[in-house]
Amino acid sequence: MPDLSQIVKAYDVRGVVPDQWDEPLAELFGAAFARVTEANAIVTGHDMRPSSPGLSRAFARGAAALGVDVTEIGLCSTDELYFASGHLGLPGAMFTASHNPAQYNGIKMCRAGAAPVGQDTGLAEIRSLVEGWAADGAPEPAARPGTITQQDVLADYAAHLRSLVDLTAIRPLKVVVDAGNGMGGHTVPTVFDGLPLDLDALYFELDGTFPHHEANPLDPKNIVDLQARVRETGADIGLAFDGDADRCFVVDERGEPVSPSAITALVAARELAKHPGGTIIHNCITSWSVPEVVKENGGTPVRTRVGHSFIKAEMARSGAIFGGEHSAHYYFRDFWNADTGMLAALHVLAALGGQDGPLSELVEQYDRYAASGEINSTVADQTARAEAVRAAYEGREGVTLDELDGLTVTAADWWFNLRPSNTEPLLRLNVEARDTETADRVRDEVLALVRA
User: What is the pLDDT of residue 58?
Assistant: First the structure.
């Protein structure tokens, strides 16, 4: 039996197929998911990876064997699966490895209404059941097996998103979209259909081998083609989706990347215009500009840990209307507190098309500081290197430390966050400052300690 500790991560299942997991194991996961959620029915979907249909169907068989009815929505983006979970009121499972290489696959699971399943909300219990059944035999099947049926929800998903953002009166925009051969190629044409958008489609063919580039737009090398096409065609904006199309990355009319923090601030301002006085969630790595813009627009910013299970839990607790992360995950109360890059993209298009200036000018008000971006360092001992950084700054005049998520050190003109990876021997550094010179100095100082 494979080591489940290697594939059951903090929020999902993810590993190499079939070396680390396969269809028989997926069947056990389906049974465990049915048992833990105590559901009479569930919904499943999958991305375009070659292994996804087989794994998804095996999961459905496992759940059906325990008497649970399964609705398969087939090819979909992760946020489309979240829509189905919310719209149908069912727990859901999405088969995808997001932006990871082609040989990987995984399962993102949620309870009814797209509520997250993480280590403390069911995933550990699912893992325990799977380990037990893999060792001792599959669970006893139900007297009456569940049904497995198919349902297409793409049109309903698109209609719901478009009901939340009105783009009918915007000026015509030329939009380049790089789907990276991922699920954006499936969802974008339906969502954009009939809108005043001249769509230039780049790599919309669904291909889970990713023949053109990895479907991870946060890596600069993967948006080079998008940037070039925007510049060549004089487009107003470029959008890049990751493999399962739940994240969206934006470039302006010059082909320059727009910070996800700036997008978070822009969308927050728009959501606060609809819901005055609302609460906005941001993680501890988003820019200072996010809470500033929230306060300027009459909202209440709430800082939380990185990761969708923490964001969604805090949104539910606080009744927040919106949340954003530095990784281009955007969460909406009107979307069952789930993350949807597509809805964020529609907000940006509405803001851009609702005025006459270029995107670069529009986002200037939301992009106020110099940032390093996330810098990863491979280390032999995460704890020791992080402690060395702490020792260097603890007690320094004018500096505060907190441990909401990793180590955050804040001064008057700069801050940095240093976090350990949960899955790799890495420390992740993010630095922001009021000017580039200061950001570079702090970055170099911290990296010297981390890499000593």
Answer: 98
CA dihedral 237, 96, 209, 22 (to 10 degrees): 180
The count of C-alpha atoms lying within 13 angstroms of the C-alpha of 171, restricted to the half-sphere facing its C-beta, is: 10
Q: List the structure tokens of 113.
A: 């209404």
Q: Dihedral (C-alpha) 198, 202, 203, 206: value to the nearest 10 degrees? A: -10
Q: Does residue 365 contact residue 381 with C-beta atoms inside 8 Å? A: no
Write the CA distances from 396 to 68, 391, 442, integer angstroms: 59, 10, 14
CA distance linking residue 44 with residue 76, whole number of Å: 10
- Kindly report each contact of residues 153-156 with a partner whose C-beta sits within 8 Å and lies 24 or more positions away, as own/partner: 153/73, 153/76, 153/80, 153/83, 153/84, 153/87, 153/88, 154/76, 154/80, 154/186, 154/187, 154/190, 155/190, 156/83, 156/87
> Which pLDDT score is estimated for 313?
87
Helix or strand or coil: residue 445?
helix
Band the pLDDT of 1: cuts 50, 70, 90: low
The per-residue b/e assignment along 177-188, b for 16 or more CB within 10 angstroms, e otherwise, is: bbbbbbbbbbbb
362: its two tokens: 């529009």
d(CA 146, CA 90): 15
CA distances from 38 to 64, 142, 168, 335 (A): 13, 13, 43, 24
Burial class (CB in 10 A: 0-12, 13-18, 19+), 126: buried
SS3 172: coil
Share of the chain above pLDDT 90, in %: 89
pLDDT above 70 covers what percent of the chain?
A: 100
Q: Determine if the peptide bond prior to 18 is cis (ω within 30°).
A: yes
The rounded distance, in Å, linking the Cα atoms of 280 and 176 is: 29
What are the CB-based long-range contacts (under 8 Å, 24+) for 273-277? 273/297, 274/321, 275/321
* Residue 2, pLDDT above cutoff 70: no
Beta carbons of 255 and 230 less than 8 angstroms apart: yes
The 3-state DSSP class for residue 249 equals: strand
How far apart, in whole angstroms, are the C-alpha atoms of residue 190 and residue 81?
Answer: 15
The active-site residue, picked from 52, 98, 261, 372, is: 98
Shortest CA distance to 246 belongs to which of 424, 150, 108?
A: 108
Which of the two residues, 440 and 425, has the higher pLDDT score?
440
pTM value is 0.95
Q: Is 98 a catalytic residue?
A: yes
Structure tokens at 106: 């995984």
Q: What are the tokens at 170?
A: 């915007």
Residue with structure tokens 């919106």? 322
